Amino acid sequence: MKIRIFLPIFIIAISACSCTKDIDFDLNEEQERIVIDGFITNVKQKHLIKITRTTSFFKTYAEVPVAENANVVLSDGVESYLCIEETPGNYYTSELAFESDKNYTLTVDYEGKTYTASDYMNSTNDIDTIVTFESEDLSFLTGKIKLLASIAVFIRETEGIGDYYLWKYQVKKPDTAYKDMTPTFTDWIFFPDDFIEGKSPPDGWVFFDKIPTSEIVPGSIVRVQMFGISKGYYDFLVGLRQQVFRGGLFDGPQANISTNFNNGALGYFVAASEDIAYTTKE
Q: Any residues with CB less than 8 A from the CB of 129 and at least 6 apart, and which?
């Protein structure tokens, strides 16, 4: 009797598990948008405005189409700066340093439409100095202790809430070029000054740690970049982080990240003051 009862239930369960159904999602592949990424600072260099177009969900990053032959102009309200397309989709200013404490507007004319965005370049304090040091770290996977490198930054943050910061760093080993140790936004450190407001700890701020000692060998030059960014760009970065680090059962549907461009363009135009500090590993 037990066998007779179990067998039909078992067959029903197997049948239910084996039923599959193909579901086609409408990915709206026809709605193409322009994506503009611009970053200017007060450091003298050629500043890049990169313009691409959205593409099919199924295409790879290498297949992302660029926006060629656009007219790209930067302005501080008094002076205008034409950006030249040096390679397809990459528009550069001439070698210059933009002034802090000014509002900048980027205008892009492309295929009969005009896109504009503005950002204010806040001034920021200078970095006093940076140091590298090594400390022991216990690996919970292997149970072994190993040395890892860290970078401490010494700076006295301006008193008063309302400043926002972005940090990156690069390392140049002896006889090599600089290696970008923070190549994507997931590696960047960014935060409001609620975290460090008016403070200057005696051991410095350790913004970068758990770095393999093989990356910072004796004779290596470490370069740290500090950017004073606007609240709008900080909110944009927070939105990016929330889109990437998601996947929970109760997450809502993804949506486009906020942008400071009008007319339906994606991306962000950033005007940020920058300070750079160096140290050499002994």
A: 154, 277, 279
Is residue 110 within 8 Å of residue 51, measured between CB atoms?
yes
Helix (H) or strand (E) holding 228: strand 221-229
Every domain of the chain and the residues it spans? 34-123+258-271, 129-228+274-280
pTM to 2 decimals?
A: 0.82
Residue with tokens 């990156």: 168
Tens of pLDDT, residues 172-182? 999 999 999 99
Which amino acid is it at 253? P
Q: What are the C-alpha distances in Å from 230 to residues 103, 107, 152, 193?
A: 11, 19, 24, 12
CATH number for the domain whose boundaries are 34-123+258-271: 2.60.40
Under a CB-based contact definition with an 8 Å cutoff, are residues 48 and 38 in contact? yes
pLDDT tens profile 24-60: 545 555 568 999 999 999 999 999 999 999 865 555 5
